[in-house]
Amino acid sequence: MKKSGILLALLVLSGCGTMDTVRGWVGSPTGQEPAKLVEFGETAKFVERWHGDFGDPGANPLQASLTRDAVYGASAKGTLTRLDRATGKQVWRIESNIRVSAGVGSGEGLVLIGSDKGDVQAYGEDGKLRWSSKVSSEVLGVPQVADGVVIVRSGDGHVAGLNVADGKRLWVYERSTPALVVRSHASVTIRRGVAFAGFAGGKLSAIKLSDGSLLWENSVSQPRGNTELERISDITSNPVVSDAQVCAIAFQGNLACYDAVQGSPLWSRNIDSDKGLFILRKHLYASDARGAVIALDKDSGSTVWKNDQLLRRDVSAPYAQDEFVIVGDYQGALHALSREDGRFVARIKLSGSAIQAAPVQMDDGLLVQTQNGDVYSLSIH
């Protein structure tokens, strides 16, 4: 296979084959060393505002969640923590008594986590359990909340809509999956009453939030190759939506954009990734499978710039803010690139632990979580 920096380990789960992607130089099938960090003259600077700890997330890339005045995070052993958004100080910490495999999600007054046994737990912002529900298999995607519905993505490819008040099932969207799939932590992206979800086999679906009915489905990528491994072409990250446009990228496949209402194709590029995308104004940003960071014109798909100085460093999905595009790597370094031309402008080493989840916006800065459970509030100027 053509991927460097990724060890593909074949597992068997519920009678269907899944693949884990394990990061780092040790996992490179070509044995190639990750690119060494280049020196540059900094024209911007990261500043740490506060630093917290959510505990060990285990093998799953658990993510922090933000509300108006809080930051929530979880550990694999089931500890759920609330930090003060302004100071990072702990407000409360509780034990959920489940092994957390997905989270944290939040919205409409709830804080949500999922387990490897299919449990979904909803807590209030006071840390008290509101309800517990069950879905068909291991919860891998961060639960999402909108319009009175909690959307839960499970490992078998099902998407369930639960009542935000009591967790009772409202609907389930099911589709068949190929014999071999990549273990995916993708969730859904919700806009204007529609949940957009990418699936194994390169399918992108638009699901009506109110009843789970399929509005449209399209193929971001077609499986190709002679072996089952080569034919894997799964969407393993959340789609992104801007105005009336939705885009998704597939592992060993393509990047494609569609009309969000009709599902009609707009453009497609032969760029693949298991990381994800970010849209800001006129540009679409991607970290490809090799570790290159790419800026594309959102409307045409043409390349604006490309930075390939982080190859094989297991670069996270990008995050764009103001004049910066920001990515993390497998050694816990955070890199800021110029949105104008992709050159490096700032760098900070947070810890020796990988940054797998894309940074997220917090006030006039950003929030970053590392794979050992550390969480940082940063600004960049």
Question: Could you please describe the fold and organization of this structure?
Answer:
The protein is an all-beta fold and 381 residues long. Among the domains are: 64-184, Lipocalin (Beta Barrel), CATH 2.40.128; 189-235 and 238-272, Beta Barrel (Thrombin, subunit H), CATH 2.40.10. It contains no helices and 35 strands. The protein has strands at residues 6-13, 16-23, 46-53, 65-66, 70-74, 79-84, 90-95, 100-107, 110-115, 119-124, 129-134, 144-146, 149-153, 159-163, 169-173, 180-182, 189-191, 194-198, 203-208, 214-219, 240-242, 245-249, 255-259, 265-269, 277-280, 283-287, 293-297, 303-307, 319-321, 324-328, 333-338, 344-349, 360-362, 365-369, 374-380. Strands 3-35-34-33 form a four-stranded antiparallel β-sheet, with no helix packed on it. Strand 4 and strand 5 form a beta hairpin. 48% of the residues are buried. Residues 1-30 have low confidence and may be disordered.
